[in-house]
Design the sequence.
């Protein structure tokens, strides 16, 4: 049984390593929902090139160079004001789309 899982475990280990490398390069690997600090407004965004940045609502797309720091699962430290930021729930867009399709047309 153990032998059958070895290739899968190797693949997972490689994936984790690649994700860590991508993260180190500043790429967004989709490991959390994009964060926004409710106290100061600092927000994460992803550029067209896939880079994870933080910006201000008044200067969207302009990287501040600051990065949220994960304290524990789903809890982050705002590098700008020091507030604790809770990761928002997963985007319900797919559920909403499905629900809309089911609605009968008038
Ligand atoms: Zn903040």
Sequence:
């Amino acid at each position: 049984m153990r032998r059958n899982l070895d290739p899968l475990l190797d693949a997972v280990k490689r994936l984790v390593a690649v994700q860590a490398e991508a993260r180190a390069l500043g790429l967004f690997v989709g490991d959390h929902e994009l964060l926004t600090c409710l106290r100061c407004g600092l927000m994460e965004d992803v550029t067209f090139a896939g880079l994870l940045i933080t910006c201000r609502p008044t200067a969207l797309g302009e990287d501040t160079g600051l990065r949220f720091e994960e304290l524990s699962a789903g809890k982050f430290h705002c590098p700008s004001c020091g507030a604790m930021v809770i990761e928002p729930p997963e985007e319900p867009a797919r559920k909403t789309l499905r629900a809309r399709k089911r609605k009968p047309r008038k």
